[in-house]
Amino acid sequence: MIKVGIVGAGGYAGATLINILLRHPEVEIIWLMSEEAHKGKKINELYPHLNGQIDLACQTLDDLDKNLNSIDLVFLALPHGIAINYVPKIIDAGKKVVDLGADYRFSDNAIFKKWYGIEHTTKKYLDQAVFGLPELYRAEIKKTKLVGNPGCYPTASILGTAPLVKHGLIELDSIIIDAKSGVSGAGRGTSQKTHYCERNEGIEAYAVTTHRHMGEVEFQLSKVAGKDLAVTFVPHLTPMTRGILATIYAKAKKPTDGKQLTALYKDFYKGEPFVRILEGITPNTKYVSGTNFCDISVQYNEATGKIIVLSTIDNLVKGAAGQAVQNMNLICGFPETTGLKQITFYP
């Protein structure tokens, strides 16, 4: 049994972490931290669905020092640039960290600065961090105390593209990722973009050439390829609560067919507990909603020579909290699927 704290408990990712960890047999949640406006409020006041399940009151980051000795692992679910100020203190206290934000996703400080506009001030800890995509870095994750949990768009995009890049099946300059997300990906805070009247019955692209997750996708796929590559990545906000569908297009180096590609994907992800390669079924966000699964299908268009991959996840689970728990399981020595075996409610 380990004791954990959640920083950023008032956000959607934090609330999803609580949902998952409450059913985890090896975890006790002992403190929650959120923004100043939530100080002293019980978490079931912020999220009434937690009534009767947990009644811890929210503290703030000012209370971190007095709580550190009592915990084994901290989940950080914070906007970028904040975790940098707290991770060194947590690690130096001998604790483990899963950071759901962007601060430890890049092992290259220059690339982090390019995409997030700030200097990484804790290079020593950046060098220790492992990108928390178990399907690619499981062995490294098991050995670290600091995981940089991937973003939601990158999780779907990287898992969908990595087999093609690894096996050299595509022209690396041809990758196009058309990705669509539910509104929960924008967080719980309100804005004009997420206002019901603005979002309902409409779908809209945003940050068409500048979305920060493009840098994360490029950085990781370049590592898989062994050479630098760039992608065209266009995110869209859709009128649904949760889910991501990434449609990936790439030019095949030589003719192939859907059956060969499906067999390659099945072999690449053989034994992976949370990646399902579909045949004869088009992935749907409803099939993975509330779960830690990534559903993938792959097809080949003979007329254009293009490979088309469809990759779906729940942005709050495999795209955030579920993957964070998967990483926690790995660094703490628990079976990887513990607490994560739920299937979706359907329809």
Could you characterize what this model shows?
By secondary structure, this protein is α/β, with parallel strands linked by helices. Helix content is 32%, strand content 20%.
Counting H and I runs of at least 4 residues, what is the number of helices? 13
Kindly report how far apart the N and C termini lie: 35 Å
Helix content: 25-40%
Largest sheet: 7 strands, parallel
Order of the strands making up the biggest sheet: 3-2-1-4-5-7-6
Count of DSSP strands: 14
Content of β-strand:
15-25%
What is the H-and-E element order? EHEHEHEHEHHEHEHEHEHEEHEHEEH
Into how many domains do the coordinates divide?
2
- Uncertain stretches: none
In CATH terms, the superfamily of the largest domain is NAD(P)-binding Rossmann-like Domain
| CATH domain class of the largest domain | Alpha Beta
The overall average pLDDT, rounded, is: 96
In the CATH hierarchy, the third-tier topology of the largest domain is known as Rossmann fold
Overall 3D geometry?
A: globular
The appropriate CATH architecture of the largest domain is 3-Layer(aba) Sandwich
Q: Whole-number radius of gyration?
A: 20 Å
Q: How do the strands and helices of this protein lay out in sequence?
A:
Blueprint: E1 2-7, H1 12-21, E2 27-33, H2 43-46, E3 58-59, H3 64-67, E4 73-76, H4 87-92, E5 96-99, H5 109-116, H6 123-128, E6 130-131, H7 134-143, E7 146-148, H8 152-166, E8 176-181, H9 196-199, E9 204-205, H10 212-225, E10 232-237, E11 244-251, H11 258-268, E12 275-277, H12 285-288, E13 294-301, E14 306-313, H13 317-332
Helix pairs in contact: 1-13, 7-13, 8-10
